């Protein structure tokens, strides 16, 4: 008897991770005794069982397994030797492993297949890979096997063409299609009903999926259906003698096993009657107890194929009920049952049940015959079941029997949650179900491919387990439908499985959050990963990144802040950081000696920055040690590209919020060993130290020599140590560097008067954005031809003492192009001959004199190839606007402009002559080819003894386009006629005064240009 009760089960939602089966590492003796195993994981089992099928398009599929030995996989040779199927990787170590099967597009019109063989020790497993021809119809299965009871089969069809479904004509009686989804370019599921097989022989049917040209055949095999079935299995007999007729339905000759009793016998007339209607004589029962026995009808060749007749004979004065238990659903029902009695009886319904059970029998209940009793069961609107016992009583005695009636409540299916979230690596979810009905479970649509329900033993399971396969694709959602027994109600459960690709930023504050993120097993993060290792809770401090060992790519920034980690283990699979890689610290990162753990990182798309962090509000530490054990960059051997800036920033001494802060950082860093494969820095390269004599940074850094493959820097190249120098860094050699798109800034001990020489050897540099020397730096770049912006040689460096600008010029002897200003501090310049290849200056060409001149400069020879100056040609010798310091011996040996013989166009011309400047200068000789001045032309002289008397070299000057044309103080200049051609078209203001002769523009144009 089945009692109804309402199941109320505590909500449970358990997500458990799949176990990782590690391969044994026992010694060789134990290995010899160990049984070699290969265990497929997840969906891979079906590939080993049924093979792997691809459409005609290119594609890939992952095969995963565990093994206890080293493994390799091979692809058999194909006919014709064509390589259309490959696997990667082809081998691996013991433990959890896998490989990817890749196929190229099949452009042929025939299917093709190849065998993969996975070998571990002496064990081999094979997978047959099949690729369909072009315009293929792909079936999940091409055969189904059913028992004789029949049922439903589901056939999934994947195709890119329209198709029709045809059932073989002779099979249509027992194979019937339920759904007929034949859409093109989609995946559809076809459902067929298979009728019970009542034939004695097994049968085979065929279903065709076709588009007219392509046909796929599905075979349906159904077991034989030997049948022996009684039309009635129980006979309730009164105590009187009686002959009963037993009707039997059978499709074979059956045998009869009679019971070993004397009150049941075969009627003599049976042999002459139908073989499927048998007659039996039941003798009268003289006892006061009922009796029963069984007759068995069976197949002689298969005794399990049988049916049993049960005969129950009443005692004297008995009430016999045909069926004593009834279970009905919650709807309104009518129950009908037989009462065999040879006495009068009545129906007694308990008062508590009279509200929902009603006797609607209308016939008399007298006589010694079989009676029908009808009970009406009202609808149950509650979810709770109910039950009652209805008594059938003798009206004159205590003889009685009972009927037990139970009615189900309204079917209810209540899962503990409607939505379950799972991690991408899969695992098991448990659904607690509160229900009052039997039910079935159906996994809907494509979710069948990645959600499975394990087979369970026993009866009804109200904690449902589902296995979620690993998700190697995008985030996905599946649905599970739970349907009540009579399809009266249903419940939908949604399973949302994250992808290994996380969309959005991840912020980790402490170890607990780190463990949670690690558990999810993300492989790619499309956003920032920001890790703050210390959050004022020492128990939650991060000391290891091991749990992040699945991440291969971060499409945002990776920020590590204040970590007390020993290494970067856990990031071993990380190959690319699309954004910035920032490591910042305030009194931390003091256990790291290298970058071990980042072995596979080959690209940083943004900045790579290591820096001392400024204190946050409330942080009081004023003396800080950061990166105190870092010696080199070992561990980054595969890093090839930094897309942004590469900066190491040690603050040293720093004032912040009116308080001094001191940092001793990077003081064990000796070299850039580990970055030998780095080829590109897309932004600037900067080493910055702002320390004083006590709190200095980078104490041991002596070389950048390990940057042996660095070819390009997209921004500036800068050594910034304005207070105290990075003392050991005297020579920088970058032999493969060809391009710096920004400036070279060298400020190594500039403000504190450091006089140590810095040698910057860039022997293969071909292109430079600009160069500004602000410390004693000698640039050796003999292949450098182009500087796109400014070139300052010796400017401001002279403030820290004598600097040999000639050595700087000597290292720039191949330059042909300067895009903006070229400014030269001529203190110590002996010759401009190293600039003999210079052809173009896009800005001003400025000649400055510092605090001391050696008077070795004899001429401007060296500028013979210079044809164009886009800005002004300026000599600054004491006029503050020229940007120089006053002197009285500037350019004292220069006599003319010899050296500028090919100069044809300048943006302006300015000479500012103080007392004693250009003391031997007499002529503009050398400017004979000057044709165009696009700006002003000014000469201002403060020395009455200045010797300029000849400007005849300007005879070929055609245009002056500026607003001012002025010559002042040339006391020996009396002939202005060489300016006639230029003044012919001049539209600005022309003035002459304090010269040997001061003609007006009109006088010069009228032939009165000389005295």
UniProtKB/TrEMBL annotation:
Residues 1-22 form the signal peptide. SUPFAM superfamilies: L domain-like (SSF52058). It comes from the Bacteria. Keywords: Cell wall, Glycoprotein, Secreted, Signal. Residues 81-132, 166-223, 256-314, 319-405, 444-498 form the BACON domain. Residues 524-585 form the Receptor L-domain domain. This is BACON domain-containing protein. It comes from Bacteroides thetaiotaomicron.
